[in-house]
Amino acid sequence: MIKLNEKQEIILMHIRDGKSQREIARITGKDRKTIRKYIKEYEENRRILIEHGGADDKEIINAIVDKPKYDVSGRKKKKLTDEIIERIEYYLNENEKRMSGGLHKQIRKKIDIYESLVEEGFDIGYTTVCQAIGKMLEEGKEAFIRGEYKLGEVCEFDWGIVKLWIDGTLTTLRMAAFCTANGNYRYGYLFENEKTESFMEAHARFFSHIGGNHRTIVYDNARTAVKKFVGKYEKEPTEALLKLSIYYGYQYRFCNNYSGNEKGHVERTVEYLRRKAFSKRLEFSSVDEANAYLKETCELLNNKPQPSMENKTAAQMLEEEKEYLMPSLPPFDCAVVKNYRVNKYSTVNIDSCFYSVPDNLVDKLVLAKVYTDKIILFHEGVKIAQHNKLLGFGKWSLDINHYLNTLRKKPGALPNSVALQQAHSKIKNLYEEYYIKKEREFIELILFMREYNISINQVETAISKILSISPMDVSTEKIKILCTKQNIISIHRKDEIYQNSKNMLELYGSFLNTNKDNFNNREVIQ
Fold first, then answer.
1. In what order do the strands lie in the sheet with 374-379?
2. How far is Cα 321 from Cα 450, in angstroms, rounded to an integer?
3. Mean per-residue pLDDT for 465-488?
4. How many CA atoms lie within 13 A of 139 on its CB side?
5. What is the distance between the alpha carbons of residues 389 and 371, in angstroms, rounded to a whole number?
6. pLDDT at 520 over 50
7. Running DSSP on this structure, what letter comes out for residue 328?
8. CA torsion 53→58→63→65, rounded to 10°?
């Protein structure tokens, strides 16, 4: 069984380099049948995607980027390993980025780097870390070398930190930044974290924005791109990066540590966009508003003439590149998929926050698709819940409908339940005005609304009618009768009984010398 990166190599050699299956087998040493299998699957799924135009293609996308099963090989243990050296260099690089962003007081000191390494599970001493850091900081910086790039060939990606006041709270956000090597077209998008789902969504948004993608994307050593370091200069990509590479058909390249000159376009883009967009304005009502402002700033910058490009704008340069880009595909399904076990509160713990599922699933496994803004939960292939994603730690998102079976048995738990506190304001008002100390009746009403698809507005209409007759006698049974009657009256039947009844009315109308049209709009409830 081949590995995911080997699958990626086979596919790219075929679609980019035009190599035959026989030649790929000779280069990789893999069986020709295996190579034929993955190329055939890839071409078929890609054809379906392009023909269908992206409607409901999540399963096809997953089929393209699914990894083959493979065994993880062991690795040798020693103190100052190449992996530890790369992690130290990563933290030093983070310090440099923060200092360039004006966050001089928020860099990691040697002791902080050591503690971070220990938290990651590395067996290393503080003195060894200090010696390694001292040696790295003594090394001189390299010179920048200007490069020439083919149209549609190279684009660079990086993360940057942005601090803004969001709804009155100072918030640290992460900006995903892209910059084309030929033309300096810049794109940025703000996320609330730097997790895998944000990494994937950033790429999907950018590729949709430009209508295709470049053949090579250059990355630094961020953990969303690099899974682990297997040598001084070799890195193993994350599963997310491999899936993006396979789906969009691009090659990736990592720059060396402390080698910003290897992706100088995007290094400057992070600082440039942060300064141009957020040096004058720091306060926004929401992250969405900040992103809209960042988008406007990018459009202004991309339409500014560049003296180094014969006064062409970056937008004009991108238009010239578009015919050389890889074909545009439907946006990648940017969810992190994982199984979770339901706890005794009928919730799953995702990123230190809790999300409810129906209470009959306690102690069972559910599958979660985690996006940057929402979480969708499934059990045995059926969607069972959807929540907006929470920020922070220890927060709860509970749907009262998920707990009705339990509340039916334990109605006394309703008044102080978080599920009731988080329910729709009209539901809470309904309980507080008419059902205090009548919890069992209230639960029956909610069950009735769910079973017959009754809206809260229909319930309010029914209560208004009851109050007009008997202000002190609101009950679930009366609400049920009125709501059921509303539903029946609203049914417009077109069956044989309806037509026969209508014909009879028309016949009576002719006997009474009444205009036939007066009966056309009447409904008979049989």
1. 336-341, 365-370, 374-379, 382-388
2. 54
3. 80
4. 12
5. 8
6. no
7. P
8. 90
pLDDT in tens, 16-64: 788 888 888 888 888 888 888 888 888 887 877 777 665 456 666 666 6
Which amino acid makes up residue 294? L
Query: Burial level of 300, CB count in 10 A (0-12/13-18/19+)?
Result: exposed
| End-to-end CA gap in the chain | 65
379 neighbors 364 (Cβ within 8 angstroms):
yes
User: Any idea which residue has 């100052």 for tokens?
Assistant: 80
* pLDDT for residue 176 is more than 50: yes
Comparing C-alpha atoms, which of 103, 65, 96, 79 is closest to residue 220? 96
CA–CA separation, 112 and 116 (whole Å): 6
Cα separation, 340 vs 356, whole angstroms: 12
pLDDT in tens, 189-242: 999 989 999 999 999 999 999 999 999 999 988 888 888 877 666 788 999 999
120: its two tokens: 């990651």
Mean pLDDT of the chain: 82
Which of 391, 414, 394 minimizes the C-alpha distance to 403? 414
Evaluate whether 65 touches 49 at the Cβ level (below 8 Å).
no
pTM of the predicted model as reported, rounded to 2 decimal places: 0.64
Q: Which helix (H) or strand (E) holds 65?
A: helix 58-65
- Predicted confidence at residue 231, as pLDDT, reads 63
Question: At a CB cut-off of 8 Å and minimum separation 6, what does 352 contact?
Answer: 392, 393, 394
